[in-house]
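Justification of computing resources. Each target in the renewal requires a structure prediction run like the one illustrated here; the chain below, 246 residues long, is used simply to show the kind of job we budget for.
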Amino acid sequence: MTLPLLEYKPTTQNQRVQSFGFADLNEDAPYIYRLEDATSSAERDALIQAAYRQVFNEQEQLKFNRQVSLETQLKNRSISVRDFIRGLAKSERFYRLVVEPNNNYRLVELSLKRLLGRTPYNHDEEIAWSVQIATLGWEQFVDALLDSEEYDRAFGDNVVPYQRKRMAERPFSFTPRYGADYRDRLPQQKPFVPVGRFNLNFDQPFDLQTFLRSTNWGRVSSVLLLLVLLCSVMLLVAAFAANPAG
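Resulting structure tokens:
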């Protein structure tokens, strides 16, 4: 049974006030990417790159994340920018990179940032949309955001989503793709300690017994034997050089 979207009361956010904050507009290249403005091949490539940057984030733009079929359809104008964004968000690569490592609350935060260009209004909105993910599934949740009235007003069919308004915080593109709960579950790498190496501790007085117990006598014997053989060879060579006729 599908549950309706729970009601929540939006709190005032800077993206909802016309004169509050400022548009992000991709600060590295201040430009809103519209399909109707992309008349050349280079401009279409720039629009596609902006879409990847928005959906997959700055840190995740790798060649194997590309969706070549979707790119071709967009270049041929067989699909809209909205459908291209929809395809990226529903792709297997996005699911494995972003959806699988995160809980529903984190997914709501990331999705609103990347698809609607804003942060959640409050925790009530996070709860409401997380219920939709749990009942509808990921793909229908993406459809609910992209087919919403808010998306229509902000971006329409042919504008790449962007961070609409913000104050002084870092751009959304710096938001890591997984939260602290997933990071804390990752296996912790132990520092490498070479086996059999004697660790000198100059804070403690020298203890002969501790030194003798911790020394790898097998390696010491090998080094001594190698030195004896090397000295023997050098003595033989010196003796032969001093008396070649003998």
